[in-house]
Amino acid sequence: MADVAEISGPQTAIEPRGARPRHAFSRRNIFIYGTLILVAVYYLIPLYVMVVTSLKGMPEVRLGNIFSPPMEITFEPWVKAWSSACTGLNCDGLSRGFWNSVRITVPSVILSIAIASVNGYALANWRFKGADIFFTVLIVGAFIPYQVMIYPIVILLREIGIYGSLSGLVLVHAIFGMPIMTLLFRNYFAAVPEELFKAARVDGAGFWAIYLKIMLPMSLPIFVVAIILQTTGIWNDFLFGVVYTRPDTYPMTVQLNNIVNSVQGVKEYNVNMAATILTGLVPLIVYFVSGRLFVRGIAAGAVKG
Amino acid sequence: MTSVSIKDLSLEFGAVSVLKDLNLDVGDGEFLVLLGPSGCGKSTLLNCIAGLLDITDGQIFIKGKNVTWEEPKDRGIGMVFQSYALYPQMSVRGNLTFGLKNAGVPRDEIARRIERAANILQIEPLLDRRPGQLSGGQRQRVAIGRALVRDVDVFLFDEPLSNLDAKLRSELRVEIKRLHQQLANTMIYVTHDQIEALTLADRIAVMKGGLIQQLDEPLTIYNRPRNLFVASFIGSPAMNFIKGEITGTNGSPVFRAGDLTISLAGYETQQSLAPGHCVILGFRPEHITISDVPGPAGRSCEAVVDLDEPMGADSLVWLKVAGKAISVRVDSGRRYQPGEKVFLIFNPAMASLFDVATENRI
Amino acid sequence: MTSVSIKDLSLEFGAVSVLKDLNLDVGDGEFLVLLGPSGCGKSTLLNCIAGLLDITDGQIFIKGKNVTWEEPKDRGIGMVFQSYALYPQMSVRGNLTFGLKNAGVPRDEIARRIERAANILQIEPLLDRRPGQLSGGQRQRVAIGRALVRDVDVFLFDEPLSNLDAKLRSELRVEIKRLHQQLANTMIYVTHDQIEALTLADRIAVMKGGLIQQLDEPLTIYNRPRNLFVASFIGSPAMNFIKGEITGTNGSPVFRAGDLTISLAGYETQQSLAPGHCVILGFRPEHITISDVPGPAGRSCEAVVDLDEPMGADSLVWLKVAGKAISVRVDSGRRYQPGEKVFLIFNPAMASLFDVATENRI
Amino acid sequence: MPQQKRPIRLLRNLNAKIAAVPMMLTATFVFAGGSLWTVLYSFTSSKLLPRFSFVGAEQYERLWAAPRWNVAVENLFIYGALSLIFQFVIGFLLAALLDQKIRFEDTFRTIFLYPFALSFVVTGLVWQWILNPDFGVQSVVRSLGWTNFEFNPLYDADIVIFGILIAALWQGTGLIMCLMLAGLRGIDEDIWKASRVDGIPTWKTYLFIVIPMMRPVFITTLVIIASGIVRVYDLVVAQTGGGPGIASEVPAKYVYDYMFHAQNLGQGFAASTMMLLSVAVVVVPWAYLEFGRRRHG
Amino acid sequence: GPAPATELEVTHWWTSGGEAAAVAEFAKAFDATGNHWVDGAIAGSGSTARPIMISRITGGDPMGATQFNHGRQAEELVQAGLMRDLTDLATKEKWTEVIRPKSLLDSCTLDGKIYCVPVNIHSWQWLWLSNKAFETAGVPIPKNWDEFVAAAPALEKAGIVPFAQGGQAWQVNNTFAVLMLAIGGKDLFQKVYGDKDDTVAAGPEVAKVFKAADDARRLSKSANVQEWNQATAMVINGKAGGQIMGDWAQGEFQLAGKVAGTDYTCLPGLGINPTLATGGDAFYFPLQKDEAKAKAQEVLASTLLDPKTQVAFNLKKGSVPVRGDVDLNAANDCMKKGIDILGKGDIVSWTDQLVSQDTQKQFEDLFSEFFATAMTTEDAQERFAKIVATAD
Ligand SMILES: Nc1ncnc2c1ncn2[C@@H]1O[C@H](COP(=O)(O)OP(=O)(O)OP(=O)(O)O)[C@@H](O)[C@H]1O
Ligand SMILES: Nc1ncnc2c1ncn2[C@@H]1O[C@H](COP(=O)(O)OP(=O)(O)OP(=O)(O)O)[C@@H](O)[C@H]1O
Ligand SMILES: [Mg+2]
Ligand SMILES: [Mg+2]
């Protein structure tokens, strides 16, 4: 603001008129954009390194500079990571894991969101005695380290008789997604005007009719957030994937771990990086496509005062 | 015949008692307004009638049927909400038909009712729009339509106009009044806007702290408020209050507050006005006249103008009388200057007297 | 001497032009109200004066100094916001002193100013509370206090009372008026409540679509609106409008709309009322009288009562005249029944005539 | 008039109760039941399989005597404190910068947020690679001429926790920034205007007015960060495997290792119980205040 | 008659180059019986894989067969009745006669019943040396640990890491155990690990072993690798002087086309004390409900012990067959050295059999801390003795 004082100083040669003069390179702008760009670089470096490395051949990787762009671009590592990298005797890369991940993620996301949204709706709009106690337990559950729960869940799944099956894993994801998802939906539905809900009751709509016809159509933002969070969370899960499935249904992350850790002599960093990118691709795409909705939904569901 | 009848209704939210042993009978075809300050339990009462809140004790009858534990949809009521509460993702038609479809009303009957409601409320051209594409007034009309198509005996309104601006509010007020004349349904209408209450109601129930303070016709409430609360709550600009005592001379009572004495001859009351009784005297601003010359003795006094607030058609003049601020409503033709000396003339027949201790009308 | 002077002010938000070449001079110590419907640019104008928005073109002078490029704090203004905008985690005292401390005002001076403001606004007992512990009216008072302690020449108010309930609003209105009389600062006050505007203003600027429609004293605006917009925007209940044409007989103009004819003799205008001119005739509800017998020929007509809305002190009666709805304000002593036949008497001296094409007053 | 019977309480809102059954089951059997089971068996000498052979507090004595556990707890405190501070500070600063009506806001936001889409496993691998002294930052800087440049966090026991922190911040601050941004956007514009009229510098407005107003957002954020801290595991495993030595061990890893590698469930359960206990001490009062009592509105 | 093709899932953690090649031999042989080997490799060493295997078995979704280090890892699973009893098959195929040393089968035996099939004999006690590295440094190839330590400065001067040590806990722990056996001798080893004698563990003889461990720590300072085969790769490439690792490292040398004696040198027992431990891998067969699977399990069990399979597998894996009656002419230099020692009976049981996994883990924690920090040998020994005192 020092510059303003200068201009409107005693020399009334220029009579201030119209918009306040502004400099594109004011100290403020340099500071803001400078900081942002610097931080952006920090955030982008790993992605850059991953991409660049994955496009180099092994000799080039061994030569050394991880930041230098590839002298000769090769897609070999990508092909290898996708279709021929080996774990033990299986040499079909990540391709199998990809479809397994899809088969795990889709039903898990659907189930966990279905349960949590109905649940959040019941908690927000149909409060009943005792619900808060369960909900509090659930929220505290969000803090319990997964490792602590592995064994009890093994027993639980064994007792139900779905250990090792896909449905077992889906159930596990639904269970561990429940606290945060329910919280999200509960907050969102609690912010829906209560009168809307009352109007529907006067109109004779019951529990499910209100949920399906009134609440669902108006909760797109929060569903987007829930889908994004669950998709990335479940897709990225390693621990449950490895503990609660069997090799023919291993998700992609487990296969990534296998490829990265199955060192055959020298570490093939380029293949590892390609595999890493491939594994992260689905959640990344989800983020890039719906990032804007995500922020809006977060504002609607998470940050309610 | 009573349309809605409430017996000993109590409602508690946890430890907080919001309604206390409330009794209320609403006649068939009556327009009853629940009026009261924020938080007095108006909406709560309405929600109890609608079945949207579980009551703690008491009974509710609608059309002679005990509906205390019925579902809202089975009570024969329609409800209009302050925030409109339209289903945002449905068209206006969808909003109107949602309840009927839920109730399994046949198609042609639905069409008939929609047509009638749309006709009455003049919303035919809006039927295929979404609520988001409507103005505030149109939304409110659709909300009324949603209650209308339910073809019920009792309409409940919860501050249906308070989200609208003043102009629209007065327009829709007239429409609601017309609608009532046309349909002759029972209507229970919650508001905290007294103009609405006064213009719409057959009877007004003034509430405070979960209790009904006075249940009467609008002009009775305006002119003969039963207690200090009703007197001060109703009327804008508010009633002027002066604290003083009765000093009876020769059977004709006189009100005295410091130097100010006002004869109470002509004041109608069942009780006797015993000398020495501490009372509060209330005058509405329009029941005091400003004059340049003193009026009859004992009904007039001198005052100094403090402030003149022109309000278009009339003005509110604030004056100081014996150290007290008094407001008087006058025609806006003449402006008064601060400091100007004038005389006030009181009409005891239009006054209200309240006991200081009980705050009830004497 | 002008206190605030705005020259050719324009403001655009991207492609949207909100204010267009606006000129406005506010006198020293004047109370100017900016009145207009929502979205007309009132707040925008106020923010430009405060320096909170960067203008697109034009100049702003405060106390003769060009402040177009000054920071808000250096303009010598204090501002009060609709939402109070108090700093929620600071005590009332903190709210009042925060700005002063930043400006490096000495301690004893701060104490002096706080004391004065607290005294004027009667918030001494509240000084150590948090805003969350205050009622709406108290918060508003603190918000005014924050502007007060800045010891500035110009106060800007952006709908300071619109979040309060009606009763409180009328109380605080009086307080603000008193404050102005006491301080004699320049005040620019934004509202869309016409009662506020009429009661508070020395002059009112009625705005629409970023343009000032009329800038005049309250009663002039009320009684002689310059155009149809001002006429319809000001006054509640609203002015009655009838569309028709001038039919001159013998130099004394007559207004005719279908069967209805009203003599315009006595209507003040600079322009000639040429026969055949299409006009809109406006009458305020209080400028029509209801009578059981017909009035003088050419100034009276028959009407049928449609609705009677009692509003306490007076009533609004809706009638049908030659197929048109007309509202008349009467004393609430007499009630009218729907269907009743009465006569209306018009006073041309209080009428307003507008050109149909330009919508300007004739 | 007939006096109507009050309906049975349990059957009112039946559908809502049915809908909440999954939650009740999960809360009861998985979270409460699982925790209880864990606590119970932490007093046993279970090895590979849970067996109810009561040994009292023996497992706890051993746990707190184990240097590795103490290192893990200490690490968690350091990591937790640092991560909490940095996530808040960086997240808030970024949000504040993005809130300055800047150009390319969307682009910047996406850049800051995308790492959140990646798993800790991926994050760990990438940063392990970037921080590797033989190919990563250190070797690149050295090859530029500064041959004495020393930046080798993953193989230096004293600073390895910072190496993990760098990766954790990279992965997590985006979300925090989003939350903060949403919170900032929720603050009344008029507050900003009032402070400008009062002539309060921007930084003071943030510090004394805006930040105190963002309490609810901060609490949400705190919950999210804190739950992440207690659970930190994958990142450590992928990045350092707990090394060098035991320098970057964390409690969750201790639990996992002793339950499964060492095949000493009792010991693992004892460590789990300690984690549960610390979670309970922090979270239960908070959850009670947040969800248990505030029931009006 | 030929059994109908049954798919049998086999889990193991053999994922490095040499290991994968070896396990392929098993798969080939099993597939040749008309059944199908479904490979369930889990990368990242036994400590990653075992929890998963155990969860699967206890979770009621057992695999067809699974690798464990025989010894005490699966003890409780057997006790819990989750493992298949192979005694009948063993009697039929006379395992007690063909499998040697006898201790291998003992480790599979509980209450007189046999529950696992040992498939190879592994010994840890090898020092692998890169001939190229020593040539570069201009010093003769050491013949034992002490010479190796003495040659280290020369290697360092030449920019070669003297001692390649993977950072993972199991590696450092075993390195110490190898030093214990080689430097302290068979008796000391037995007293510490077998008898869990904590006074011995705190005594001067073990202090000597700690001195040697201190040397190893010093020489491996700049290795910066985690996985064992990365460390081996350093030796193969001449970037490191030597590595202590089990005989499976040989698989990596072979895969890289290196020849024992010319490219690399192996010193069993670190060239001091040529005693080998007979650890190894074994396959367990979790109980299956499916009849066909149970049959296939039996087929697999006998396939694993088939002489031809044994040879093929062990040649690739670099380990010694469990059968004494197979022809091992194809074995290379190093393997022959090993077979010789085994033949002489200079054998001990390895730590897997002697102490529980729990104790192992505590050792691992201690040594991974020891190797990564500047902990004094005295402190380390004191803590070592404490663990020995409570070991089971
Ligand atoms: N769900 C609830 N739990 C606890 N108290 C409540 C609840 N709903 C309302 N109340 C309390 O009951 C009282 C009456 O509320 P109600 O909404 O009926 O007031 P109201 O008269 O409609 O006010 P307004 O004019 O502001 O709408 C208030 O004091 C309110 O705080
Ligand atoms: N930041 C902005 N960007 C774009 N348009 C804006 C912005 N702020 C205001 N406007 C537009 O400028 C016009 C004037 O807005 P302004 O807030 O001044 O209205 P107002 O007269 O104060 O209305 P109200 O009575 O509702 O407060 C409106 O049409 C509004 O949509
Ligand atoms: Mg209400
Ligand atoms: Mg505004």
TrEMBL record, chain A:
UniProt keywords, alphabetically: Membrane, Transmembrane, Transmembrane helix, Transport
Protein localization: Cell membrane
Membrane-related topology note: Multi-pass membrane protein
Transmembrane segments annotated in the record for this chain: 30-51, 104-124, 133-154, 160-185, 206-229, 273-295
Taxonomy, superkingdom: Bacteria
Protein name: Sugar ABC transporter permease
Family under the similarity heading: Belongs to the binding-protein-dependent transport system permease family.
Species per Swiss-Prot/TrEMBL record: Phyllobacterium sophorae
Domain ABC transmembrane type-1 per the UniProt entry, residue ranges: 98-290
Main location: membrane
GO annotation terms (biological process): transmembrane transport
Keyword Chloroplast recorded: no
GO cellular component, as recorded: plasma membrane
Alphabetized Pfam families for the sequence: BPD_transp_1 (PF00528)
UniProtKB/TrEMBL annotation, chains B, C:
Gene3D superfamilies reported in the protein's UniProt record: 2.40.50.100, Nucleic acid-binding proteins (2.40.50.140), P-loop containing nucleotide triphosphate hydrolases (3.40.50.300)
SMART domains named among the record's database cross-references: AAA (SM00382)
Chief localization: membrane
Pfam families: ABC_tran (PF00005), OB_MalK (PF17912)
Name this polypeptide is given: ABC transporter ATP-binding protein
Ranges for domain ABC transporter: 4-234
GO biological process: carbohydrate transport
Cited PANTHER family: MALTODEXTRIN IMPORT ATP-BINDING PROTEIN MSMX (PTHR43875), OSMOPROTECTIVE COMPOUNDS UPTAKE ATP-BINDING PROTEIN GGTA (PTHR43875:SF1)
Species annotation: Phyllobacterium sophorae
Keyword Signal in record: no
Protein family (similarity comment): Belongs to the ABC transporter superfamily.
Protein topology in the membrane: Peripheral membrane protein
GO molecular function: ABC-type transporter activity; ATP binding; ATP hydrolysis activity
Keyword annotations of the record: ATP-binding, Nucleotide-binding, Transport
InterPro entries for this protein: AAA+_ATPase (IPR003593), ABC_transporter-like_ATP-bd (IPR003439), ABC_transporter-like_CS (IPR017871), ABC_transpr_MalK-like (IPR015855), ABC_transpr_MalK/UgpC-like (IPR047641), Mo/tungstate-bd_C_term_dom (IPR008995), NA-bd_OB-fold (IPR012340), OB_MalK-like (IPR040582)
Subcellular locations according to the entry: Cell inner membrane
One GO cellular component, as annotated: ATP-binding cassette (ABC) transporter complex, substrate-binding subunit-containing
TrEMBL record, chain D:
Keyword field contains DNA-binding: no
Subcellular location: Cell membrane
Species this chain originates from: Phyllobacterium sophorae
Gene3D superfamilies: MetI-like (1.10.3720.10)
Protein name according to UniProt: Sugar ABC transporter permease
Matches recorded under InterPro entries: ABC_transporter_permease, MetI-like, MetI-like_sf
Family, similarity comment: Belongs to the binding-protein-dependent transport system permease family.
Keywords in alphabetical order: Cell membrane, Membrane, Transmembrane, Transmembrane helix, Transport
